[in-house]
# Entry
Amino acid sequence: MAMSGLSALPRVRPGQLFGIKVNYNARLTWLVLAHQTLDNMALIAYGWPADLSDEDVLAWLAELNSEQAAMARHQNVLTLSLLCYLLSK
# Structure
């Protein structure tokens, strides 16, 4: 006894997606290359050397984050000081 409508669904075969043959290794290779390209572009954007280890990248990002946080705190103090000054007039 067939279940209503389910027997009409296409069977999924390994290596196929909607009846189209898919080369999963080629897709994985593309993803790895895209990730490496993005990593290299980020290193160039930050002006960092291309041979940094993951640990070095994380250390540099932590230092950059700390600098940005300090600048934001300084900006907030200046803004608050200016606001207090203007309100006191």
Remarks:
- The two ends are 87 Å apart (CA to CA).
- The first helix runs from residue 24 to 46.
- Residues 1-6 have pLDDT under 50 and may be disordered.
